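Hey everyone, long-time lurker, first post.

I ran two proteins through the pipeline my lab uses and got sequence/structure pairs for each. Pasting them in order. The first:
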Amino acid sequence: MTRIIMSGCCGRMGRVITDIVAADLDTEIVAGIDIIEDERMTYPIYANPADIKEEADVIIDFSSPKVLGRLIDYAVSKKIPMVLCTTGYSEEEVKLINETSEKIAILRSGNMSLGINTIINLLKTATSVFCPAGFDVEIVEQHHHNKLDAPSGTALMLADAVNEAGGGDYEYIYDRSDRRAKRDAKELGISAVRAGSIPGTHEVIFAGQDEVIEIKHIAYSRNIFGNGAVSAAKFLAAKESGMYSMRDVIDQAIS
């Protein structure tokens, strides 16, 4: 049985994961962390991680970068691995996460779905073929109007995969409104749409002379992210310190 602390338990994804775990005989949420309480939850909820009394094997965080410091302090003090699903971290926060991975196991991903993490591998192959042939690359992402950060963490994951496979010298362009110049070959455009209740759509466009290749992922339900987070929690529990990814989860599942 994998015992989970759910950070951001009263948010959209916290509720989704709570329902998934309730139907999973191999996992249990023993405590939640949130600034509000929800009487529908069957486990205790704490505003401050330091107040948690229950023992756990892993933390899943689907909350806000604002809680990162206190969450890391608690996780390190208790030697509990962390699955970080939150996006919008600053460079300083990413540095803190990387430093913390030397003390405890951390799995950080801007997107927890199996589909997106498989697409990342496809992008590396596509980039190695299309970009040397002069194809331009653009990424368009769409999310619900309540999402705070833009571009999405997933869009940046996809961009990083292209950039890595393309030699690491792409410039990310988020806005062309102040430019009146021809597109540079090493630009990688990233556009964000915020509207309605869109759970998440990501499209990578490889545009060459007279042909266009599109790789697209549509999330019709937040359950795909919740299932991925729970799988990651099972994988990470009892792991040694270090930085892990969803690729590690997928590799273990298919091995």
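...and the second, right after it:
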Amino acid sequence: MTRIIMNGSSGRMGKVIAGLVADMQDAEIVAGVDVFDDGTAAFPVFKSLAECDVEADVVIDFSSAKAVDAMLDAAVEKNLPVVLCTTGLSTEQLDHVREAAAKIAVLKSANMSLGINTIIKMLKTATDVFSNKGYDIEIIEEHHHNKLDAPSGTALALADAINEAADGKYEYVYDRSQRREKRPENEIGISAIRAGSIPGLHDVIFAGPDEVIEIKHTAYSRSIFGNGAISAAIFLAGKKAGMYDMSDVIAAM
């Protein structure tokens, strides 16, 4: 039985994960952390991870960027592995994540879905085929109107996968409104839509001479992210210090 602390337990994803774990035999949420505890959780909720005195095996973090630093410090102090799902981290915070991973196991992923992580592999193959043959690359992502960061961490992860396969030749462009010129070859346009209750849509477009190839992922429910995070937590519990990602989870399945 993997004992989980849910950081961000009163948020949308925190509640989704709590609901999913409630029906599982191999995982249990033993405590939550949230400054906005709404009193509906079936487990004790603390204002910070540092205050939590419940024994656990791993932390799942679906909180906010501003809460990540304190969470990491407390996790290191308690020697707790962390599944880090929060996006929109600054360069300094990413450095903090790497520092923490020298002391505890940290699994960081911009998207916990099995589908997205499989698409990342597909994009590397597609880039090998299309990158040097005149194909333009665009990424369009859509999320609910409450999402704070834009573009999404997943959109950036998709772009990074493409750029890695292309030896870093691409620059990311988020706004062309002030530009009056032909589209340069070595750029990836990334567009963000925030509307309604869209859980998440990512569309990668390879547009070449006389044909367009689209690799698209649509999330119809937040459960796909919750199930991925839980699988990651079960995988990460007991692991030695270091940086992990969802490819490690998939390989262990």
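Reply from user beta_strand_b:
Welcome! Quick read of the second one: The first helix runs from residue 12 to 21. The radius of gyration is 19 Å.
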